[in-house]
Amino acid sequence: MTTEPIIATLGELILRLKPPGKLRLRQTAKFEVCHGGAEANVAGSLAQFGLQSRFISALPASELGEQALMSIRANGVDVRHVARLPGRMGIYFLEDGADVRSGCVIYDRQDTAFCALTPDQVDWDSAFDGATWFHVSGITPAISASARDLCEAGMKEAKARGLHISLDLNHRERLWQYGQRATDVMPGLTAYADTLIAGRGDCRACLGFSPEGDGSTNDWYEALSEDVLHRFPNLTRIAVTIRNSSSAECHKWAAHLRTGSGSYFSKTYHLHNVVDRVGTGDAFAAGLIYGLATEMQDEAALQFGAAANALKHTIAGDTNMVTTNEVKALMDSDGTGRLRR
Which of 143, 146, 169, 232 could form a cystine bridge with 198, CB 3.0-4.6 A? Predict the structure, then answer.
């Protein structure tokens, strides 16, 4: 009898404030509110897919913290390992792009309750009890030195217990403000991982290398993934996302996966009316994790992750609110969005 996978994630849940529609921050008199964060988004998406997901984090002991906790609990995530600590709520402001104007994100994440969370405040035995997989992203060690130490401790604890560890490099240049660069930290964390996920520029920004060229050909991704697996023999696979944008609303998206036994490219999705691109990488990570954790073949897991990513572009908010049936329906369709009756 196969045991149902339990996925644990560690990261910060933050408040997202966004002007309505395409208004700029300098124009707005009000904000739309939701909650997000890379690892929280993955946990929420996995719960939507029907897996047991746990979130390890800390929130302020305040009304804002309670609102945030309610939001992720409502997605079906196990929040028993979210500590309530002194400190403030992390915030980010999102300005949607339009046509040739790029969107932007402004972070306000210093001195938050999550930054106060130390490894000895986490009951790792309980947090990892029955878990089969542990997921973190490069956003967490970018927040602060304490968050970096917490992330490394979590990876060590997971490794000691035999969990499969996935790491999404998820480089965010504006977050690395405490005296270390991504290239100082991320190679060491990558050495603990089994599955690595990266965007086109993440290996250069976080690990310090990538092939020459602009990533415009499949050969470039083949060379990158082969080099990563050679340099990090602990990895069993690497997935690299491939995005090309002609405007804020029109994107072309695919992904590449290399394992020790094969190399694959997903279907390419042409996205002509993007609703919300935030969290799309997390949607891919969650889809890939779901596929691998439920014992799909590597290529099928890649295609599931790519379809989940494509659907997230149509969902407002940080978390991908879609089911496995919806993802599989897109995988099997021509993607024209016909009305379901």
Answer: 169
Q: Helix 63-74 and helix 38-48: axis angle, to 10°?
A: 40
Q: How far apart are CA 279 and CA 42, in angstroms?
A: 9
Give the max Cα distance, the chain: 57
Please list the residues that pair with 341 across neighbouring strands. Answer: none
Instruction: Provide the pairing of β-strand 251-259 with 32-36.
Output: unpaired
CATH superfamily name and code, 6-331? Ribokinase (3.40.1190.20)
Measured CA distances, 34 to 26, 43, 88, 249, 337 (Å): 20, 16, 17, 21, 26
Q: Residue 338: what pLDDT? A: 65
**Structure confidence at residue 334 (pLDDT):** 75
Paired tokens of 215: 């990533």
Strand 104-108 versus strand 91-95 pairing type: antiparallel
Q: Cα separations (Å) of 289 from 208, 217, 293, 316?
A: 26, 26, 6, 22
| Dihedral sign computed on CA atoms, order 192, 91, 313, 23 | negative
What is the separation of C-alpha 107 from the centre of its chain, rounded to a whole number of angstroms?
A: 17
Q: Which pLDDT tens digit goes with each residue over 71-113?
A: 999 999 999 999 999 999 999 999 999 999 999 999 999 999 9
Q: How far is residue 98's CA from residue 294's CA, in Å, rounded to a whole number? A: 38
Residue-wise pLDDT for 179-231, tens only, equals 999 999 999 999 999 999 999 999 999 999 999 998 999 999 999 999 999 99
Query: 336 falls in which pLDDT band (50, 70, 90)?
Result: low
The one-character DSSP state at 109 is -
**Rg for the chain, CA atoms, rounded:** 19
Helices 145-160 and 182-190, packing angle to 10 deg: 10
> Whose CA is closest to 151, among 130, 174, 132, 170?
170
Residue type present at position 63 = E
Answer yes or no: pTM beyond 0.70. yes
| 240, amino acid identity | V
| Residue 1 pLDDT grade (very low, low, confident, very high; cuts 50, 70, 90) | very low
